[in-house]
């Protein structure tokens, strides 16, 4: 950030708009650059007026129009920082104050000839069309590892602790994705709670902090590849990319993998595989709720997307999981007539980021309804591969039965798994799990243990999705036949292709 501000001031830019939730950090960087270049910084707030940060003198101007007009009376090489200036420029769906807009245009144009600058410091970008060409926008990223290591060291030092370099690295790694203030608070909490910047505690508190906005959530899945029955083709594909985020892979010429779109029949393990990808790739996983990106205020949806991407890139290398992506972006086609183009702009921003992203963020998206997916999302370059998850064949269902029987603390060797496989033809993995749960309820109510006969009875009561929605499942299979790679690999039996014909 300092380099950008330095270059803008040296080039004579008279209007700067700094977008950041970290007001203290941004103001400190501004002041450091101003001191270096011989500028005086004056900070304005609606509550305190205009403060000369060099002399401490305060001019009790609380009206924003007067504060902007005061720029003309200041000596050369002055920088006026308007905190929360976006609140007067049309934020929260309100129209911009025309007097302030005109005052800013006049002050900026006059400042170009006198080595002065007006800086708006705000948490989000709000610029009316009249001012878009007057300001250079600087977006401040989240602190990097080096900055977080300094914070960890300073927090430990203030508590009288001396940390090993490995402990500092671990604390900084756990705090990636936090603002400076959040990192300081959480590291201080860790010192108070556990006697040091415990990376486990920092990661747990970070997950709670990131979840506050409801858009991104850091999750800690317990699922591994062993919990996924079948899907050997998809699991093998992921395993080959486990070490692709390393410097050695880059030196070998490998680009960081972009991601995978997992399309398939509901209940076949798409979300389970997405969560298991965290253990397969050995990377943290963030879940993006695409629906919550959209907000009622003008520009807020796009700002939500930028913040989500910024957080993901700060945590990188990581996995960004978007479940049922078609529900989040299905409205982009008719966006112009339904929401003024907001959905289209958000979707466009998202796929542009997917195409151009340099940070190692591996996107795992799942979808049930391919007809709702915009075609732009499916082309090569957005995802590395498109996998189709079909109904499990006999071998896969045998694995799934053993997994779910084992999860209920029973030994699958005591069950006639082959009989269960035969009777559950056309069942999804989710339906197999629900059958086991249903049979458990029956067994508990009858005062007996779970057995094969009880599970068979539960199977016979269940009507699978492949029967109730056979037309939709057939259509999805037909679409995926030559368009997607089979998640189960190339070992499916001929019988599997005919499974739902009845």
Sequence stretches where pLDDT stays below 50 over 5 or more residues = 492-502
Proportion in β-strands = 5-15%
Radius of gyration from CA coordinates: 28 Å
In the CATH hierarchy, what is the superfamily of the largest domain? P-loop containing nucleotide triphosphate hydrolases
Q: Output mean pLDDT.
A: 87
Distance between the termini: 64 Å
What percent of residues adopt helix (DSSP H or I)?
40-55%
Shape: elongated
CATH topology of the largest domain: the name is: Rossmann fold
Number of strands: 14
Strand line-up across the major sheet: 4-3-2-5-6-1-7
Q: How many separate domains make up the residues? A: 4
Overall structural class, as computed from helix and strand content, comes to: alpha/beta
CATH architecture of the largest domain: 3-Layer(aba) Sandwich
The total of helices stands at: 23
CATH class of the largest domain: Alpha Beta
Biggest sheet, open or closed, and with what strands and sense? 7 strands, mixed
Overview of this structure, please?
By secondary structure, the protein is of the alpha/beta class. It folds into 4 domains: 2-139, P-loop containing nucleotide triphosphate hydrolases (Rossmann fold, 3-Layer(aba) Sandwich), CATH 3.40.50.300; 145-212, no CATH class; 225-389, P-loop containing nucleotide triphosphate hydrolases (Rossmann fold), CATH 3.40.50; 390-502, Helicase, Ruva Protein, domain 3 (Orthogonal Bundle), CATH 1.10.8. 46% of the residues lie in helices and 13% in strands. It has helices at 2-10, 23-37, 64-69, 98-111, 145-158, 165-174, 180-194, 199-210, 232-239, 247-252, 270-281, 300-315, 325-329, 335-338, 342-356, 375-378, 394-407, 417-423, 429-446, 452-461, 465-468, 470-480, 494-497; strands spanning 15-19, 40-45, 49-52, 58-59, 78-83, 117-122, 136-139, 216-219, 259-264, 285-288, 318-322, 361-367, 385-389, 485-486. Strands 4-3-2-5-6-1-7 form a 7-stranded mixed β-sheet, with helices on both faces. Strands 8-10-11-12-9-13-14 form a 7-stranded mixed β-sheet, sandwiched between helices. The radius of gyration is 28 Å and the shape is elongated. The N and C termini lie far apart (64 Å).
């Amino acid at each position: 950030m300092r380099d950008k501000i330095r270059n803008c001031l040296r080039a004579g830019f008279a209007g700067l708009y700094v977008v950041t939730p970290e007001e203290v950090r941004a103001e400190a960087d501004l002041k450091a650059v101003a001191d270096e270049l011989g500028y005086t910084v004056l900070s304005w707030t609606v509550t305190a007026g205009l403060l000369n940060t060099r002399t401490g003198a305060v001019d009790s101007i609380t009206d924003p129009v007067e504060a902007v007009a005061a720029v003309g009376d200041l000596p050369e090489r002055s920088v006026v920082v308007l905190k929360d200036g976006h609140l007067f420029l049309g934020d929260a769906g309100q129209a911009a104050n025309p007097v302030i807009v005109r005052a800013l245009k006049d002050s900026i144009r006059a400042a170009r000839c006198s080595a002065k600058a007006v800086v708006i410091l705000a948490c989000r970008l709000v610029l009316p069309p009249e001012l878009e060409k007057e300001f250079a926008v600087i977006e401040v990223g989240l602190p990097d590892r080096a900055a977080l290591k300094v914070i960890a060291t300073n927090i430990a030092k203030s508590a009288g602790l001396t940390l090993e370099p490995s402990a500092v690295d671990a604390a900084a790694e756990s705090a990636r994705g936090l603002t400076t203030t959040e990192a300081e608070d959480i590291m201080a909490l860790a010192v108070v709670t556990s006697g040091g910047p415990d990376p486990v505690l920092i990661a747990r508190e970070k997950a709670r902090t990131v979840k506050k906005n409801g858009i991104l959530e850091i999750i800690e899945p317990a699922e591994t590849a062993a919990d996924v029955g079948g899907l050997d083709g998809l699991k093998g594909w992921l395993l080959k990319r486990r070490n692709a985020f390393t410097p050695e892979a880059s030196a070998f010429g490998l680009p960081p993998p972009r991601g995978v779109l997992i399309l398939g029949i509901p209940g076949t393990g798409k979300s389970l595989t997405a969560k298991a990808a965290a253990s397969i790739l050995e990377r943290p996983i963030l879940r993006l709720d695409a629906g919550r990106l959209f907000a009622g205020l003008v520009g807020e949806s796009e700002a939500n997307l930028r913040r989500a991407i910024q957080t993901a890139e700060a945590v990188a290398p990581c996995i960004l999981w978007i479940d049922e992506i078609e529900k989040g972006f299905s409205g982009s086609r008719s966006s112009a007539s339904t929401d003024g183009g907001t959905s289209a702009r958000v979707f466009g921003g998202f796929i542009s980021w997917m195409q151009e992203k340099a940070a190692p963020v591996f996107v795992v998206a799942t979808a049930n309804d391919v007809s709702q997916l915009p075609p732009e999302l499916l082309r090569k370059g957005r995802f590395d591969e498109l996998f189709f998850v079909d109904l499990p064949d006999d071998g896969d269902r045998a694995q799934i039965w053993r997994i779910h029987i084992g999860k209920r603390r029973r030994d699958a060797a005591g069950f006639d798994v082959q009989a269960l496989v035969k009777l559950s033809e056309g069942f999804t993995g989710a339906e197999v799990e629900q059958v086991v749960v249903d049979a458990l309820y029956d067994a508990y109510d009858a005062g007996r243990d779970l057995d094969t006969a009880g599970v068979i009875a539960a199977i016979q009561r269940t009507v699978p999705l492949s029967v109730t929605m056979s037309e939709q499942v057939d259509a999805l299979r037909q679409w995926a036949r030559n368009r997607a790679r089979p998640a189960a690999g190339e070992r499916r039996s001929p019988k599997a292709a005919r499974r739902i014909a009845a």
